[in-house]
Amino acid sequence: MCTGEEGGESTRRILVTGAAGFIGSHSVGALLERGYDVVGFDNLKTGSLKNIAKFSGSKSFKFVKGDLLNHKEIEAALSGANAIVHLAANPDVKAGTEDTKLDYEQNIHATYNLLEAMKLSGAKKIVFASTSTVYGDARVLPTPENYGPLMPISLYGASKLACEALVSGYSHSFGFEGVAIRLANVVGPVGGHGIIRDFLTKLASNQKTLEVLGDGTQSKSYLHIDDCVSALVLCLERSLGSFEVFNVGSEDRITVLEIAEIVLEELELHDVKIVTTKDALGGRGWVGDVKNMLLDVKKIRDQGWKPSMGSAEAVRQTVRRLLRDGSPEIKGAPR
C-alpha cells in the first residue's frame, strides 16, 4: 500500500468526487490499480455510469450517487476516507456565462461543503483539480506558479481560484494537507466535450467545411489524461506540507488550426475548407477563452513527474482513440 514519501499515514481509502467524469473515471482506475480502496462520488449531471462500469465488479470500489450541495450525502460518503481527490465541478467554461450561478454552486459552494465535511470525517488530505485559467491572460509564458497578480477572465477561472483559496485556508486552519494542481487542457478518451470532440462532431455532418471558433491562432498546452492522472497520484502520495500549488501540463503548445489539421489527417479527409470566426472577441473562441497558455512545470518536475508526450502527440493519440472506440462515424476515417 502506498504511503506519503516521508513516512506519512497510509491513505488507504480515497474519496474521488466527480468519479464518473472524464478525469474522475481515469483517476479511479489508476488508484484501484495501485491498491487503494476507492469511493466514487458523483451527481451524474455531467458524468456517466458508463465511464465507471468496468469497476463495478471490484471489491475495492464503491459508487455513491450524491451531490456536494447536500451535506448529509457527502458526510456519509466521506466516512472512513483518509484522503480526497476533488474533481467534481462544472466542466464547461462557456456555460458559466449563460448561468452565472453554475460555477459558484458547483465549484465554490460544493468545495466549501466538502471542506466542512472533512473537519468532521477525519480525512487529512485533499488534492484539488484547479486550472490554468486562474492565470487569465498571463504576460509571462511559460507561466510559473508564483506569477501574479492572478486575474481570471472567466467565471470558471475565478471560481477555481476561490476554491484554491478555500483549500489553502482550511488546510492551514484545520491541519489538512492540501494540494491544488493547475491543469492545462486535458485530452484523452471518454472526454465528453472539448475542441477535439467539437471538430469530430462538426465533421460528422459536414466534411467540406470545418468551422473554427476564434481566429485559429489560439495557442495552448494540451495534456494527455494519463499524464494528468500520474501527476494527481504523485501529489496524493507525496507529503508536501500544509498547502502546495503545482502546474501540470505539457512543455509545449499547439494552435487551434494545428489541431484541426491533425484531426483531418487522422480522418484522411482532404480539401476540407477551414473557416474561422476571425476577429470576433479579439480572436478568442468564446467569452473567457484564454488565447495563449503555456505552464512552467519545473516545480512538479522537481518532484519526479514529467509529461510522456507533447501537445501535438496528446491530441493525435486522443483522436485515434476516439475513432477506434466508435466516436462519430466519419467517411474516410481509419477503421
Name the beta content range: 15-25%
Give the uncertain stretches in residue-range form.
1-10
Dominant shape: globular
Q: Major sheet: size, sense and barrel closure?
A: 7 strands, parallel
Annotation field: number of helices: 10
Percent helix range: 25-40%
CATH topology of the largest domain: Rossmann fold
By secondary-structure content and strand pairing, the structural class works out as alpha/beta
| Biggest β-sheet: strands ordered side by side in the sheet | 3-2-1-4-5-6-11
H-E order: EHEEHEHHEHEEHEEEHEEHEEHH
The overall pLDDT average reads: 92
Key traits:
single chain; three-stranded mixed sheet; Rossmann fold; seven-stranded parallel sheet; 2 domains; alpha/beta; 14 strands; UDP-galactose 4-epimerase, domain 1; disordered N terminus; 335 residues
Description:
The N and C termini lie far apart (41 Å). This protein has a 7-stranded parallel beta sheet with strand order 3-2-1-4-5-6-11, with helices on both faces. It contains 10 helices and 14 strands. The chain is of the alpha/beta class.
Give me the secondary-structure topology.
Elements (H helix, E strand, L loop, with lengths): L12 E5 L4 H12 L3 E6 L18 E5 L5 H8 L4 E4 L8 H4 L2 H21 L3 E7 L23 H20 L2 E7 L1 E3 L7 H11 L3 E4 L6 E2 L1 E3 H13 L5 E6 L5 E2 H12 L5 E4 L15 E2 L4 H4 L9 H14 L11
Parallel strand pairs: 1-2, 1-4, 2-3, 4-5, 5-6, 6-11, 7-10, 8-13, 9-14
Antiparallel strand pairs: 9-12
